[in-house]
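We treat protein structure as text, and this decision shapes the records that our systems exchange. The tokens are whole numbers drawn from a learned vocabulary of local backbone shapes. Below, we set out a record of this kind in full and without editing:
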Amino acid sequence: MAEEQSQISEMSFEQALRELESVVRRLESGDVPLDESITLYERGEELRKACQSRLDAAQARIEKIVAGTDGKPAGTQPFDADGSA
């Protein structure tokens, strides 16, 4: 299990997300035996935590970037992906 943890920590966000999507597809297929389903679910939960942690860190970095014209923090603003702010 410790080996799996180190592997997750070495993955990029995109790699972890792809593996998480794969785990979810396998679980949703219904073709996985119960014991394997439990193992997959545990792996998926660890991947989800890793992805969420990286997203939280990215959000914190973005919030630090937001500053007023005088260079002082002007607060935080939600990220608007489509640019319609």
Observations:
- The chain has a mean pLDDT of 83.
- The first helix runs from residue 2 to 10.
- The domain at 2-65 is CATH 1.10.287 (Helix Hairpins).
- DSSP finds three helices and no strands in the chain.
